[in-house]
Amino acid sequence: xxxxxxxxxxxxxxxxGQGCRAVGLDVDAGALANCRRANLSVVLxxxxxxxxxxxxxxxxxxxxxxxxxxxxxxxxxxxxxxKPGARAFFCYHGFGYFLRYIFTGPTFKMRFYxxxxxxxxxxYWIAGKRLPGFWGDTLYQAYGPLLKYYRREGLxxxxxxxxxxxxxxxxxxxxxxxxx
Length: 180
Prior knowledge:
Oligomer: single chain
Largest sheet: 7 strands, mixed
Helix content: 25-40%
Number of helices: 6
Strand order of the largest sheet: 3-2-1-4-5-9-6
Distance between the termini: 17 Å
CATH class of the domain at 46-94 and 140-179: Alpha Beta
Radius of gyration: 16 Å
Shape: globular
Low-confidence stretches: none
CATH architecture of the domain at 46-94 and 140-179: 3-Layer(aba) Sandwich
């Protein structure tokens, strides 16, 4: 199992507690140092270029890491490293996540973050790249583009659900996919 965007290792600890062998991947060297102190197996790397052999994992967890990556490249890497029959479990930011910031953020800075994240996502869908600099730091994920990535990479959506909603839009989106 691989945990893409493992951060401080919360899911890695849970997997280890269930007897599962797992490796975490993240770009935060400090977080990975904490994982190593807890004897968790981790790798410093970007999700867009994972240092693993093809078809080497039978499972994947990715909890809110995709919004901070080039989602198209990440999906290509995920399709590459998963074995046939493998399952992947994702949690994404939905549109409602940023609407919440825009309409209820307690500071102008937080509201502005929501606006620029929405604009960045729309720009990414049209141009295939992020806005430059801090303008392009975060994306939200939507059903249509995700399905396109899944099909392209030989992944099949097995289950889709949402958590809480804000103004009728999902705050978080949860997908389970299987490698064909």
